[in-house]
Automatic annotation (TrEMBL):
Residues 302-388 form the Ig-like domain. NCBIfam families: Bac_Flav_CTERM. Residues 1-23 form the signal peptide. This is Ig-like domain-containing protein. Pfam families: CHU_C. The keyword Lipoprotein does not apply. InterPro entries: Ig-like_dom, Ig-like_fold, T9SS_type_B. The keyword Ribonucleoprotein does not apply. It comes from the Bacteria. Keywords: Signal. Gene3D superfamilies: Immunoglobulins.
Amino acid sequence: MRMFTFRLLAWLLILGLPLTAQATHQVGGQMEMRAAGDVPGHFRIIVTQYLESSPQADRQGGGTLGIFRKRDNVLMMTFSTRETGQRQPVIYANEYCAEQRNLKFIVATFEADIQLTPGLYNDSQGYYMSYQTRNRNGGINNIVNPIQTGYTFYLEFPAILQNNQLFTNSSPHFGAINGEYVCLGDPFTFPFGGTDPDGDELRYSMVTPLNQKAISGQNNNTQNGVSSAPYPDVSWASGFDANNAIPGSPTLKVNAQTGELSVTATQLGLYVFAVKVEEYRNGVKIGEVRRDFQFLVVDCPPTTTPDPAVQIRNRPKQPVTIICEGDSAVLMASVNDNWNYQWRRNEVNIAGATGSSLSVKTSGQYTVVVSLKTACSKVGNSESLLVDVIGSTATVSASGHLCATTGTIKLTATRLPSAAYQWYKDNQALAGKTTDSLQATQPGNYWAVLTYPTLGCQARTDTAVLDRSPAVVAEIKSSSGFNRICPQDSLSLLGSGGLLYNWQKDGATVGGSDAKLMARSAGTYTVKATDLYGCEGTSVPLAITQIAPIVVTLDSIPGVCGPDVPVHTLTGSPAGGVFSGAGVTGNVFSPKQAGIGDHPVTYTVKASPECTGTVATRMAVVAPIPTIKLADSLTTYKGNTFSLNPEYTGNPSQFQWVSSTYLDNPGAANPTITNITDDITYTIDVKNSTGCEVKDTIHITVFATVWVPDAFSPNGDGVNDVLELPGIEAFPDAILTIFNRWGEVIYSSGKGYANPFDGTLNGSSLPMGVYAYTLHTVPEKPVIRGRLVLVR
C-alpha cells in the first residue's frame, strides 16, 4: 500500500506553540531553470514555494535571486521574480484528518524570464543561483531554533558556451505533490523524484537543509537578500542529521535512482529534510538542485483499511479504455457511505474529485484513495485505471533551424500506434507527407492531422511556426583602419557578425575560431561567421598588402668644445622624418640649449602613418673645455726625484710634456721627474676626445745646497734681523738646530724653515756671541755643521 505525505506546519497547533505573527512560514519548495528553446541563453526561472495558508502568505511576493560563478563566487547578475497563475491548495486524501489538524497549505509559483549572454557564461566550473527567505515553522522537532531559521533555494547549472560550442540544458522538473502525513509505525513511501527534459541521469541523496546566510551590514531579519555561497546548514537537534532526519526503522531514505522517499517512523513529530538532485550527462555532473520539505508523523488509530474496487463503466474487468478527444469515460468505485473519496490522476490528487465516481476526458492513470469519514486513519488505495484519449496530447516538436537561405527543421508529431498522418503547411495539405515526421526547408505554419482508424478519431497537433533567421553578415575590419601590414609587424583583423569564426588567407584556413586574427603577411583574407543557430555568412574578401621596409639614416654630428658655439643643421634620410633630442628644434641642434654632455639625437621616419617609426640615432657631443690646475713654479734640490700632479677637468685623454728632460714618461698625465740637476721649464699640452685643447707651464728652480750666513744682526733695524737661509725652500724637510756654548738647544725649526731664527729664546733676546748649528736637509745628504755670530 502506497501513502503520500507532505511537510505539515500544523504540528505547531498540535503542540500548542505560538506562531510568529509577522513570519511567512515556508513549508518547502525548489527552483527550476527551463530553457526557452528559442534563443541560446533564454531561460524561464520558476520558484515553487509551499506555504502555510495565512494572511502573511497572502502577502508573499516575488523575491530577488542572484546568479554567481562557482569558481570564485563572483556575482554575475540579479533579477526578480513575479507570481504567475492562481495559488492552488494542497489537496489531502483524508480531508477529515486535514480539517482536524488545521492542515491548510497553498502552492505559490514565482517566475522570471532572463537572457544570459553565452559568451559571458563559459566557465568550465559552472554557475549557481540562489534565493533566500525566512522563516521555518517553530514546531519543527529536528533542528535548533527553527522559528529563527531561514531557507535557501539553490540550483547549479553548467556553462552555456563550452569549447566554443553551445551547451543546451534545463534543470530537472518536479510535478505537483499531495498533502499527506506519516502514520507512526507504518511503512511509508513518497514519490519525490523528478524528470529531466534533456534525458539526463538524475541521482538523489539526503543532505542537510540550507539556512539563510547572514549578510554583514544588513538586517538579517529581512525576508529576502542576495549573497554568495557558501550558505550555512541548519543546526540539527541532538541525535539528528541528514541521514536520520526522521527517526525510524528504517529512517528516512531516498532511492538514489528514482527519488522515492521511504520511512517507517518510530517517533511523533514534525521533521524537516532536504534532498539533493544531481544531474549527470555522459557520466559527468552538470547541475544540481535542492528540494527542502518536512513531514508530520502522527499516531493513526488502528482500524480496518478500506479496500475500494474500481472499474470503467460499461467495461467491467477492463482496466484500460481508449476514447476520442471530446468524449468521456466514467470511472466508478465501490460505494460506502462511511468513506471519503479522493480521485488521483498520475498519483496527484484531483481538486473536487471526491465522489464515488468520476467522469474524465483527459488521458492518464487514475486511482482513488478512500478513508473513513469519522476517523483519522490509514487510507486505502485502489488499483489503477488507464484512460487514453486519442489526440489529447497531439503536439509537434521541432529540431533544427532555418537560416536565411539554408537549413532544415525536422518536425515530429505525437506518435500514435496505427494512426494515419497528414501534414499541412499554411492550410494546404502536403502531398505524400503522411508519416509522423517531416523535413521542412521553408518557413511557414505547419501541423499534422492524426486519424485513428479503429474509433475514427481525428486530432490536430499544435502549430509549429517556422521562420528564417536574419542573414549572418560577416565583416572584417583592421585594427589600424588601413589594409596594410607595417614592416616587421603584423595587422590585427577583427571579425564580426557571429559567435564562431573561420579565417582564410588565399583560400587556406588560418588561425583559430576567435573573432581576432593577426595577419602577418600580405594576401586576400575572408572570414566565415557562425551565429548562435549555426547559420553562416562569409565576408567580402579583404586584400591586405605589405609595406616595404625603409632604411633611415642620420648624418653624423661633429663634437664641439663648450656650448658657446654655432648651431648645427641636422640631415636625415629619407626626407619627412622627425628629429628629436636635447637641444633639437626642428632640424637644428643647439649646443647651448643642450648643454655639456653626450646627447642622443634621433631621426624617426614612418613607412606609413599608422606604422611604428624606423629610428636612426647619432650622438651629439658638447664636450667641456679642459682645465689644468698646476703651480707656476716649484723649487727643489739637485738630484731630487718627485712627481708632477696637476689637477685636470674636461675629461682629457691626451697628454704631452715639453721638454721631456728628467721625465720618465712625457705622455703621462702625472709624470715623474728623476734626478733633476738644473733649472727647467715644462709645458703640458692636453686634449680630450673631442679635440678640445689647453696648455700650462711650470718652472722648476734647482738648488745644489743651502747657504748659511756666518752672522746676522737681530737689532731691529730692519736689515738682517732674522737668519736668512737662501735655498732652504728646496728642502721642505730640512731641520735647523742652534746651540749655545754649553751645547743647549736654543732653537729648532722642525721640518721646513717656516719660522726663521730671530735671535730670541722664549721671547727674550739672546746675547751676542758665537752659536753652533746643525742643518739636516735630506737623509741622503750629510749634515751641515757650522758656527754663526749673533751681532747686536
